[in-house]
Every structure is written in C-alpha cells, then in structure tokens.
Amino acid sequence: KKLEEVSGYSPDELSGMPATNAYEIKIGTSQDGDEITGGPEMVDSNTYTPNTELNLKDGAPYFISVRAYDALGNKSHADGDPWVRGEFVFDSSGPTFENEFPKDGYETKNKRLTPAIQIKDAGVGVDPDSIVWTMTNPESDDVPGTWELSSDGLTSTFTPSEELRVEGWYSLTVSADDLL
User: Fold this and answer.
1) How far is CA 77 from CA 11, 15, 26, 40, 97, in A?
2) Cα–Cα dist 58/49, whole Å
C-alpha cells in the first residue's frame, strides 16, 4: 500500500509503527511446502513458536519459508521473491547407550576385558569423532587403550592396551555427541 492510500494518518505517525502479523511462515517436506504448518502461519515475532504440535520426525529434513511484512502490509522484497528459505533436520535428543557390556556391578577375573556398548541416535546420527571412552582403575589411574566403531556404526568397543593388573572396581565412562 502506498502512504497516500492510508487515510487519516500522516507519514510521521506511520514511521516506526510495528507491524501486526509481521511474518508469514510455512514449513513443509519440500521447498515452499506448507503441509507441516497446515498452510502459511502469520506471527508477530521473528521467534517462531508453533501454535500446534508439528509432529516432526527425527532425522527427517524439513524446509522453512519466511517472508516479512511492514506495518502497511507490504511484503519484503516487493520487486522480487519475497521468501527467505532454509532447510533443517529435526533431532529431538542426543545419543542413547544400550546393551552395554559389562553391566554395572559386573565381576570377572578376565584381565583382557573388552567393554562394548551400542550408541544410537534417533535423529541425525552419532558423530564417531565425538566418542570418548575413559577407563580408570581402582587407584583412579587412567587405563590406556583404543576404541573401535563397528562397521555398522552402532557398537563401540574399548580394548585396554595391556592386561588389567590392579584388583578391584574399574570405572568406565562413555560419551558421544550427535552430528549437530
């Protein structure tokens, strides 16, 4: 709308006026899609909080399109494409650990114990470079060793560099990040 079309307001009164429903947002499974938001959604803030559950799937790619409006209802980039677009992958949580061996409280006389654990991530996957194994003996000394990731990328195994020599409870910690 041109300034002359807005009756009853002087240009000075409209200057700096905040827009209502300043952003139009749509989210879909393809570029410019809107099936996730159920059509374009108008919002007042550039921080988007959906009004309903979006039911996004972990690890799935989604596309977001946003365009802005001024206080008079003019679209951004009126002479060109008014949409700003982006792509994201939904990931609701970090890696989880399953099927650990040995279990907490495990007792053995095996001096060449090889602990293993499955590391999974429902979203974008586990970053193999982020996996850290730490094993300490009962005297709180680090146990040197190497870890390997299985060919399927789901199981990580720690192999101590030498036999476990100190009798008592060993402590083993594993941490990992996802790919985000």
Assistant:
1) 21, 19, 18, 18, 48
2) 19
Cα 5 to chain centroid distance, Å, stands at 46
Say which amino acid occupies 158: F
Whole-model pTM above 0.70?
A: no
Model confidence at 81, in pLDDT bands (50, 70, 90)? confident
Q: How many Å is the Cα radius of gyration of the chain? A: 28
**What is the 3-class SS of the chain, one letter each residue?**
CCHHHCCCCCHHHHCCCCCCCCEEEEEECCCCCCCCCCCCEEECCCCCCCCCCCCCCCCCEEEEEEEEECCCCCECCCCCCCCEEEEEECCCCCCEEEEEECCCCCCCCCCCCCCEEEEECCCCCECHHHCEEEEECCCCCECCEEEEECCCCCEEEEEECCCCCCCCCCEEEEECCECC
Most confident of 7-11, 64-68, 90-94, 125-129: 64-68
Contact 36, 62 (CB under 8 A): yes
Structure tokens belonging to residue 46: 């550039």
